[in-house]
Amino acid sequence: MKTLKNWMVAVGVFYILNLVLLWPSIWAPQLPGMYPGIELYQTEPIFQLLLDAWLIVGLGLAAIGVVLLVGSRQPLRYYAALLPIVLITETLFGIWDIYSAMYYEAVELAVITLVIHLIIIVSGVWVWKKIPALEKNA
């Protein structure tokens, strides 16, 4: 059960930290390096819309992160809902990163984020496969 709990805490904290990273005052200076060669119109209102959209991503991840942390107190009770949510989120965001890398995003950054998605997905599946044994011993 400790493996499941540790995974939930690690991913939960990582997701909450994403909100900090995606906070507009921190994220705005990063965007030109993320999208090289793309006119971001940083002095126009549309740039604020882009920042707000990224903030919503951060808020969504943080919400999942908080639920993971709360659920980690009783991981065997909540894993059946939380693990699929994380795996679906990571798969969808991974697809988005592939799309972005093909057309807009700096390739190095896309590769780094894809590796992070894969680490979370693979470790989540690994933990999920261990759960029957954890339930037996609980």
Characterise the protein shown here.
- By secondary structure, the protein is mostly helical.
- Helix content is 83%, strand content 0%.
- The chain contains 6 helices and no strands.
- The protein has helices spanning 2-21, 24-27, 31-34, 45-71, 75-103, 107-137.
- Helix 1 packs antiparallel against helix 6 (107-137).
- The longest helix has 31 residues, at 107-137.
- The chain is elongated.
Mean pLDDT: 92
Low-confidence stretches: none
- How many β-strand runs? 0
- Discrete helix count: 6
Features:
138 residues; mainly alpha; 6 helices; 83% helix; elongated
Brief summary of the model shown:
This protein is mainly alpha-helical. It has helices spanning 2-21, 24-27, 31-34, 45-71, 75-103, 107-137. Helices cover 83% and strands 0% of the residues.
Strand and helix layout:
Blueprint: H1 2-21, H2 24-27, H3 31-34, H4 45-71, H5 75-103, H6 107-137
Helix pairs in contact: 1-4, 1-6, 4-5, 5-6
